[in-house]
Protein: Solute carrier family 15 member 1
Amino acid sequence: MNKYEKGLVVEDNSPDEFGYYRTRPDDFKVGIPDTLNMRILLPIVFELLKSISYFGIVYFFTTYIWMDIGMDRKFIARIKTGLNFFYYFAILLGAVLSDQYFGNFKMIFFSSCLTVVGMILIGISTLETIKDSVKVPLFIVSMFLLFGIGSSFINPSIIAFSGNQVRKGYKPTKTDGVYIDSRATVERCYRYIYSASIVGGIVGTYIAPRIKNYDSPIINPLSSLAIMFVGIAAFISGYKIYYRNPITESSISKAYRCIKYALNNKKSSNSNWLDSSKSSKGGNYDDEFVDGLKRIKSMTT
Structure:
């Protein structure tokens, strides 16, 4: 049986203005994903270009402090380890700030601006006119506090934002019993945006060594900056067509309570251990949220 065949069953079953049923219709047999529209494609394009820009800067960071500044390789490895740890913490913090305080769109926009400022200062730090006593601290601070935090804050927000652009519910197709299922569409959206991130990383890592100019180190950050500008322009071009969900509790805190409840109430009869948290009173989440966690888990494991 297809994993979208069962669907969600709640009380109201009237279609909205776009023809979507909020709940599973009686003749529902199978759910299929909808085509991805511009509201979803623009964030995916942004993620692709942002990843190209990000990995271009990361490559430049390693080569610049080794070949141009002359730092020891072991010291560089320690810096990169600290940078990665810092980024993971910033991703979690960004998710909480986005969900509970600012909203995804504002978080993406302002984090992108912070990233751009970091790139500009990274480029400035490579200029020969900058004193050595200023160059290295400016470069490190720009990488960690501006570029690092900005790019890390973007990651959880852009994923959640793209998923929120999907109309929720079931829409009938020309085939009897076959409906467009928003859950399948969200999963397709997540696969595309994760793929965009991976492809962007590959492209950025491939391009960066080929545009590096050892006589003018600023070429690399400027190239990444130009790509990031295009990505931001693509993203904000959809300002008027995006859906904006109201600011609520952080998905991380909801996921934590959901997982904790499922672990403490495992049932051998469930096909997935997360199903134990369905219909529970342990947190501000519904069965659809649990299904979303299951889809994310299936895509990342």
